[in-house]
Amino acid sequence: MASALKNLSSYDAENMPSAAPMSFGIVVSEWNHKITHALYEACYNTLVEHGAQPENIYTEQVPGSFELPVGAKLLAGYHRLDAVICLGCVIKGETSHNEYINQAVATGLTNLSIASGKPMIFGLLTPNDEQQALDRAGGKHGNKGVEAAVTAIRMAAMKRQLTNAKQKIGF
Ligand code: DLZ
Q1: Within-domain flag for 16
Q2: What is the pLDDT of residues 113-160, one digit of tens each?
Q3: Which residues are catalytic?
Q4: Which of 108, 120, 138, 146 has the most CB atoms around it within 10 Å of its CB?
């Protein structure tokens, strides 16, 4: 399979926009804490590596991944943010709870992004077992937290660029 050995954290760091003027929200789910904490650390560090100021990064924890969309909405309503990154991990179990939660998070964040025009980043791991989660939280497939941070910076830069271009049109 083409994606089997893809390291999710590979990206062109040289050509990233600067995150120095940007503000970010990070919402982290407490379920599967060991995994989500690893995602959070990688995400936070990546934002800072690209210039984000620690005082412009606002973090909130929510009980589980199902609460990520409302957590994102509350955080974005409280601070002036360029983007909100949502981090969670839903491990498949004996029942189909994972399908309901994953679908709810995907739909919730999509709707929220489109309605607000603010990037809401889907940093949710949806593994079949804990090993698959570990592989994507600093293991052999990189760290999805890095990918989420990179996506947030790129989308925030795109929004800023288009907003500036729009303001220059007209008299
Ligand atoms: C209930 C539940 C279960 C079974 N599994 C997970 C999980 O693997 N990962 C996760 O982030 N959250 C899980 N939850 C909690 C739900 O996301 C949610 O917090 C509760 O259903 C309360 O709304």
Answers
A1: no
A2: 999 999 999 999 999 999 999 999 999 999 999 999 999 999 999 999
A3: 97
A4: 120
Q: Whose CA is nearest to atom 23 of ligand 1?
A: 66
| Residue 3 confidence (pLDDT) | 46
**Structural domain contains residue 170:** no
91 lines ligand 1 (CB under 6 A): yes
Residue 2, pLDDT above cutoff 90 = no
Look at residue 168 and tell me if it is in a domain: no
CA distances from 47 to 20, 38, 126, 166 (A): 9, 14, 23, 27
Is 3 contained in some domain?
no
Q: How far is the CA of 10 from the centre of ligand 1 (A)?
A: 29
Give the domain range for residue 64: 21-163
Domain total for the chain? 1
Q: Can you say how many angstroms the Cα of residue 50 is from the centroid of all Cα atoms in its chain?
A: 15
CATH of the domain at 111: 3.40.50.960
pTM of the model: 0.94
